[in-house]
Each structure stands twice: as structure tokens, then as C-alpha cells.
Amino acid sequence: MLPDSPPAATPAPDLASSAPPPQPGLAELFIAFARISLAGFGGVLIWTRRGIVEQHRWMTADEFNETYALCHFLPGPNIVNLSVVFGSRFRGIPGGVAAFAGLVGPPMLIAIMLAAVYAHYGEIDALRRTLAGVACAAVGLLIAVVFKMITPLIEKRDGAGLVMLAAVFVAIGFLRLPLQIVLLVAIPVSLAVTIFQRRPKA
Amino acid sequence: MNSNGNPILALIWTFGLMSLFAVGGANSAIPEMNRIAVDVRHWMSDKEFADLFAISQLSPGPNVLIVTLIGYSVAGIAGALVATVAMCGPTAALAYCVSRLLRRSQHSRWPAIIQAALVPLSIGLMAASALILARSSDQSVLAALMTLAAAVVAFATRLNPFWMLLAGGIFGLAGLI
User: Fold this and answer.
1) For B148, how many CA atoms within 13 A lie in the half-sphere containing its CB?
2) Chain A partners of B141 at a C-beta cutoff of 8 Å?
3) I need a surface site. Which of A54, A122, A176, B168 has the fewest CB within 10 A?
4) What residue segments make up the domains of chain B, in order of their start?
């Protein structure tokens, strides 16, 4: 069911690889993902890689990249997908649930506590002002992520990609069209453009 | 809170559907969350939505926490749980199935093509998220400058984002924003 083929065809990693990769149990999965999640402000990916690949050596860097790429092209929260795929690889569906619960459970408690404070004291002026300042900075962080992601498209001179990006931005940001409708048009168009661009050159 | 229908069912329907369309993660779906929570269902004001986003960024953990907070503000703890599971469940099940399929048929070129096609779309969605949040957060020149400063520092350095959030909070508390 989980073909972690023992006759490993992968070339031996540089570091001491004689020990077989450890097989995490359910509690270990929960704790590992809880620690990763609680360490991560504004993006959990770096911590996930650090925890899974470097600290626990549950995956090689290549395996991690492959799994992450898969979870990135699927819809939904990428890291959540990754935790489920990762956990279920070792311990089946219970493993996926344990990793997911670790990733989302503890931060959820913190967020709910903060939200409860906000619900009770949200009208206090000092708190309002503080949160308004945090909100401004949070938007700035999001803008930075957007520009970091656009940079490779500009470097590759991916004109079609930039046009698609701008079209989605206008449709959702300015025209406020429903997401489903925009994507039902944009995904086929973008797929067609990508396939056309990658066709074998004659 | 809206009176037409059970809010728990509304949360399940809203986020369960959104789950499968959230190309590029929770931050890409923010415009859709804003549209539904503020304009369609009237669960909260624009300002409240921006506040919830700020709280979700203040908490450690994945970006999907914004969904938890929307659920919480609509229907308390039960709402928080239901919204989070609805947002994560369908796509997690899909990820589980696809990963098992792909382990059987290696070397398909489709994942790479689909990913390349989706990247510009998810960036466009995130840019729209930033626009919508900036509209409700940046009501003054100083607020816009704070956003700009955080964006520049986060783009140009590897400083932990937490410090930018803290700086924003301090400036806000000091009454500068």
C-alpha cells in the first residue's frame, strides 16, 4: 500500500545515510507539525522544510520538493495539503489526520483566543489603533509576497503569464466577479496558452 | 448575523466550495471570502474583515486561519471548527487521492504544465487580495506609508515578518495610523 521500496534506487545522500529513514508514529506526526506551525509567522513553508528534511530526515530534499509541487498545483491551503499527504504516506489516513491536526489545531487555539479578546475589547480605542497598525503592516507583507512571486515571471519575460495575472487581478480586485466564474474561464485559457508555449519547436 | 438559514450550513457550503477553487492557497481566496462575508452574507463589515486578517497574521500557523476566524465570528467555536474543516477537507482528500495516483504513474508531464498555468492566476488572486485589504486598512496617508514600508522591508530583507507586524502595532498604538 505504501511502496517505500526498500531496494532504494536513489543515490546515497551525502550525509550518513546508513540508518533507514525513521517512520514517524501518529503522536510524532502531530507534535512535529504542531511545532512547525507554531514557529511559522507569515508562511510555514520554510519551517516545514526545516522540520521534515533537515531535523527529522523523514524525506530527502527532492522528495520534499516533489510533494510540495504536487500540493501547490492542487487547490486549497498548500501546507495543509502537504501535511495530509505527508502524514498519510507514513501512517495512512490516521497519519494524515494527525499531521493536519498538529498543523492547524494549536494555531487555531491561539487565533481563537486573540479573536475572543477582539470580540470583547474590540471597541477599546488603544486596541483598535494597534490592530489597525498591524493590519497595515500585514497588507504590506502580502504585497511583498506578490512582488516576490512576480519577479520570476518578469525575468522569464513571460508576457502571456503577466497578461493572465493582470486579467485575474482586474476581474477579482476591481470588478469583484465571483471566483468560480473567473477561474472557469481563466484556467482553460491559461492551460491552452501554457501547452501552446511548451509545444515542441519545429 | 444573517437570519436566513443556519449559519453553520452556510459556512460549510461557502468554504467547502471555496476549498476546491482556492488556487494558490488561502491568501488567494481572500477576495472571495471578503465578497461573501461582507457583500453577500453580511456577516461583517469591511473593517472587521481587515481586522480578522490582521489577527490571523498575528497568530503563528498557516494562512488558512483567516477562515477559522470568519467561522468564529459567525458562529463561535463550532463555526470556527466547521469553517476550517470545510476549507481544508475537500482539497486535502483530493490531494491524498492525487498523490496516490501519481505514485503509481510516475513521470507524468501534466503536473508541471498545470502548475505553470496556475501560477500567474494565483499571483493575480493574491494581488487582488492585497488591493481589497489595502482599501479597507489604508485610510490615511500614514497608514499607506506603513503598508509601503512593510512591503519594501519584507521584499528586500529576510527579516522575520513578525517584527513588521509589531512595528505596525506600535505605530498604531502611538496614534500615528
Assistant:
1) 7
2) none
3) A54
4) 7-106
pLDDT per position in chain B (177 positions), as tens? 444 579 999 999 999 999 988 887 888 899 999 999 999 999 999 989 999 998 998 888 888 999 999 999 999 999 999 999 999 999 999 988 988 887 766 566 777 787 788 888 988 998 999 999 898 888 899 999 999 999 999 899 888 788 888 999 999 999 887
Report residue A185 as a C-alpha cell.
474561464
User: B64, A112: Cβ pair inside 8 Å?
Assistant: no
Nearest CA in chain A to B147: A140
Q: Do B84 and A136 touch (CB under 8 A)?
A: no
Q: Which residues in chain A are contacts of B35 at CB distance < 8 A?
A: 176, 178-179
- B29: its cell numbers: 481566496
Q: What is the pLDDT of residues A65-99, one digit of tens each?
A: 778 777 777 788 888 998 999 999 889 999 999 99
Rounded to an integer, what distance in angstroms lies between the CA atom of residue B23 and that of residue B41? 23
Out of B92, B124, B134, the one facing A164 most closely (by C-beta) is: B124
The residue of chain B with its CA nearest to that of A102 is: B61
